[in-house]
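Amino Acid Chain and Its Fold in Token Form
===========================================
What this section holds: a protein sequence and its matching fold, both as plain text.
Structure line: whole-number tokens from a learned vocabulary of local backbone shapes, matched to residues.
Purpose: to set a sequence beside its fold so the mapping can be learned.
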Amino acid sequence: MANLIVFGAGGRAGRVTVAEAVRRGHRVTAVVRDPGKYQGLAAEGVEVVAGEVTDAVRIAELAPGHDAAINTAAAFEEDHFVAAARALTTGLATAGVDRLVAVGIGGSLEVAPGVAAHDEPSLPEEARAFSRNHAAQLPILQASDLDWVVLAPPLVYLDEGPGTGTYRLGTAQVIPGADTFAYADLALALVDEATAPTRSRELVAVA
């Protein structure tokens, strides 16, 4: 059994990740901005707490004693992912938590060596900006001492259906033929990499 702390636990990816971790018998600290809005997260083995993924001090308070952290939090603010990466690298180091698994975005994957998918002109500007903001966290993670991995799902969107019960990991390049991907399958990969790591200090396609 592992002790996991999940940031953004009230979001679409966060909720299914908490549920998947509990299904496997792990204990979870579910971090949300307002616990009163997420009473549905409460379950045996889950502690719902108030916190913000961009707050290094709060992360340092909450994270001690956990085996790994999972970050599923997302926001459209331009500096969100950079602020989160800075807070996580600082707060987790202070707390003595070495492993971080984060949700990435398909646009940051390469379509050719050195060419990110979000640089393709066919991508809408709003999506391009969101993907670039996502990718801006990578240099901060690379400069840290954390054992991190960022799992980037396909370019199109994540389906909220039941999932297939399986997934595959690739490299930092877009996986050919990968299109839709269920949050439930993403949760499998997140919990696996948090509890039995296979990748370290890299951006990895998941489909």
Summary: The helical segments are 12-23, 56-62, 80-95, 125-135, 138-142, 183-195.
